Amino acid sequence: MKRALVTGGAGFVGSHVVDALLGRGIQVRILDLLTPPVHDGKLPDYVSTDAEFIRGDVRDPACMRSALRDAHYVFHMAAYQDYLPDFSTFFTTNAASTALLYELIVAERRDVELVVVASSQAVYGEGRYRCGRDGDVYPGPRSEEQLERAEWDHQCPECDGTLEPGWTGESVMAPHNSYGLSKRDQDEIAVKLGARYRIPSVALRYSIVQGPRQSFRNAYSGALRNFTVQLGSGVQPLVYEDGAQLRDYVGVRDVVRATLLPLDRPAMQGSSFNVGGDRSVSVLELAGLVGRALGRASEPRVSGHYRVGDTRHIRSDVSRLKSHGWAPQETLEDVVRGYVEWATSHPEFHNAAAAAHDRMKQLGVLRESASAVSTARG
Ligand SMILES: NC(=O)c1ccc[n+]([C@@H]2O[C@H](COP(=O)([O-])OP(=O)(O)OC[C@H]3O[C@@H](n4cnc5c(N)ncnc54)[C@H](O)[C@@H]3O)[C@@H](O)[C@H]2O)c1
Question: Domain NAD-dependent epimerase/dehydratase spans what residues (predicted)?
Fold first, then answer.
């Protein structure tokens, strides 16, 4: 019987990966630290009792060594995702743990047949744009001065012309926050050390993943959770900037199919792939979909607030993964409906968004633009 190690297997995506592996008759061992604020110190009820559970740290060589014992496959899902300025934690948890994994596999001549790492769309930063004069451009982050003036859109760094947001393929990584930088390192460690030491490896760059089991306490989980909690509690949804930001959302079931695909497709080894929704919507459109799923009118409050370091538009081109036979099957409407049903029946449903909003304000991540200040003054 084949055995898999799933790091972060008590988390949102990892727990669904665990269930799918068990469903294929693969024995599963989970290594997870049950890190706050995502967890409250207890093993969540949804974690399958058919999997072996080790509470431990992916940064700790002894833990990783014992968790790796006899594993044929490794799914490295554990990660630190937050807005906190503890920069080194991103690199030790996301990147150094990946280097440690390869170090142990090489040093101990482990017979690992496949490593899959959960990379992220965050490796692209602002992603690809199209300028009528200069062609493809990859702008850097918007300046704080620009955001204070409520000028949300990028301009061409070469000619100051208007830019059209494109679909971003896998070729250019340009992260600009500590999470994205650490994920880029993780992605390159897996693909490059994997190739160098003949350890079959695949990096999957997930877009925004949505579905049941996403922690209400994760400051990083985005607009769908916030809109659901706000609208479901009768509060007008709060939209940052002007609400025109484009994103592609992907359902967790489609992400799990993509994550297990390398087991059946050896041709994927040695590469990175986008795993996205194949359709983009604006944040305002997303608020409308949540309102419809809840049967409530959604009149979002376009507040002029912005978050420092937010990406204007980002959407991933999934053609490379499609060439291996994968395509998203869940529509965005299904994803939103499924999430809303799960979230509204969750005991932590109420007050969760307010808490997340307050926390970001405390951390200084949330700021007001000139337009927000003038609106507030009437
Ligand atoms: N959810 C998304 O939208 C999304 C998007 C892009 C990439 N990803 C990536 O997918 C993976 C899973 O994300 P998720 O949304 O399920 O996150 P999650 O926070 O729900 O799960 C991560 C798990 O890792 C565990 N963990 C954290 N630090 C650890 C450590 N030092 N040692 C052992 N375990 C530790 C946590 O306890 C948690 O159970 C991550 O690698 C993340 O970067 C997620």
Answer: 4-129, 171-276
Q: Which of 356, 365, 358 is nearest to 83 (CA)?
A: 365
| Mean pLDDT (whole number) for 49-62 | 98
Q: What is the pTM of this model?
A: 0.94
- Mutation to probe ligand 1, out of 206, 208, 215, 250 (largest number of atoms < 8 A from CB): 206
- Which range of residues forms the domain containing residue 299? 3-377
User: What is the Cα–Cα distance from 104 to 92, expressed in whole angstroms?
Assistant: 16
Q: What is the CATH number of the domain that holds 55?
A: 3.40.50.720
For residue range 280-303, what is the model confidence (pLDDT) as tens digits?
999 999 999 999 999 988 788 897
Spatial CB neighbours of 38, under 8 Å, sequence gap ≥ 6: 11, 215, 217, 218
Ligand 1 pocket, mutate which of 17, 35, 273 (most atoms under 8 A from CB): 35
Q: How many domains does the chain contain in total?
A: 1
